[in-house]
Amino acid sequence: MKPLRIDPKTADLDDLIGRGILLHGHEGPFLVAGIRMGLLALDLLESPGYFGLAAECEAGTTPPLSCLADGIQVGSGCTVGKGNLRVTEANRPRVTFTDAGGRRLVVELRAEVWKTFRESDADKATALARQAPISRLFLWERTVAR
Ligand SMILES: [Zn+2]
To answer: I want to staple 78 with a disulfide (CB 3.0 to 4.6 A). Which of 11, 36, 84, 116 is the partner?
Structure first.
């Protein structure tokens, strides 16, 4: 069976958020941020998603921060079940994506956005995660693994 692809240039964010809510059970800023992080990774690494890409999510296992990992699953197609998503307990909203060619991308939620997520009510924070330009939400760095 032919694997699915996610095209970050044409993906409908509202549709992906809908899928994220079905997977995760509720909407929230970290879920939405994770979806957008995943799409950014596919865009910058020119990946079709799901396969040929691995993600290490440092957001741990305590909500709401850990909700980021489910967004990563929806936005990048890297999943726990395929073994290409690993979650570590660093408790920071940072994800490292690595592709089969050894290219690496580290994406982190900007500190001021994380603070806003913590301090705003959930609806406001989710709206920010949905609507803010990607460069306002995240910092990222691309490297080639040696
Ligand atoms: Zn959640």
So the answer is: 84
